[in-house]
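dude i think i finally got it to work??
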Amino acid sequence: MARAINRLSASGVKTASVGKHADGGGLWLVKNKDGGAKWVLRVTVHGRRREMGLGAYPDRSLKEAREVADKWRAVVRQGLDPIKERERQRREAARNIHMLADIAHDAFESRKAELKGDGKAGRWFSPLELHVLPKLGKCPSLISTKRISAIPSPRSGTPRP
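look at this
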C-alpha cells in the first residue's frame, strides 16, 4: 500500500498544534512553542537520513512547500544530496553574479529604454561585446587597470600604453 501524500490542508497548517506534522513524501511542518513554524524535507541519500529546511511558515505556503519538496525529491532520485546541491547552486550563483559580462548585460538592460531606438543600433553595447567582453567577460568585476590596458584599442588594434 502506498503512503499517503498531501495529508495537510492550508487551514490545518494554520491551526496545527506545537510539534511535527507530516504532509507525506518526507515533507514536515515543525511548529515551535513560540508560534513560529518551518518546513522540513526528510530524505535518505546514500543510506543517510538528511533533513533539509525549506523555509519558514507563513513566508512559504503549503503549496509552495510542496512544489519545492518535489524539486528536491527529484534531485534525490538522481542520487544527489539535496543539501550539497543547494549549496553548490548558491556558490555558483554568487560566483556568476559578479562577472563583468553579467554586470554589463544588466547595465545595458536597465539603460536600454533611455537609449535611442532602445539601443538596437548597437552603438552603446556592441563595442563592449566586440572588444571588452571577449577578454574580460568571465573575470570578476574587480578589474585592474593592467588588464584594461592589455585590451587592443578599437582604432589601432594594438594594446594601449
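The beta strands are 19-24, 27-31, 37-45, 48-57.
im so relieved honestly
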